[in-house]
Write a structure and sequence with these properties.
The protein has 95 residues and is an alpha+beta fold. The chain is built from two helices and two strands.
Length: 95
């Protein structure tokens, strides 16, 4: 089992100590940077009274991106499946 790594991440002026697998560090640090950038954008573009509101909007934004990617992937898979079936039909006609 890989040795665990202790890191601290700062999000919305709060520090979160984590114990993680070393392979997770880069992803977590990149995610933290994206959250901080998004917090800055929300605070700059909207009148925000509370950090919790900003964090809720960040969570919604990230969740929407994940859901949209899932929907897009499903659509692409259906489209690929239809094309494969059409190609298979063409091949069957010429065999």
């Amino acid at each position: 089992m890989p040795e665990q790594l202790k890191i601290k991440l700062s999000i919305a002026n709060r520090v979160y100590p984590l114990t993680i697998n070393p392979s997770q560090e880069e992803g977590l640090r990149k995610a933290t940077k994206k959250i901080e950038v998004m917090i800055g954008q929300f605070e700059q573009n909207y009148s925000v009274r509370d950090k919790q509101d900003v964090l809720a909007m960040c969570a919604l934004q990230f969740a929407a991106q994940v859901e949209q990617k899932s929907i897009d992937k499903e659509y692409v898979n259906e489209e690929v499946q239809e094309k494969l079936e059409a190609l298979n039909e063409l091949l069957n006609q010429h065999i």
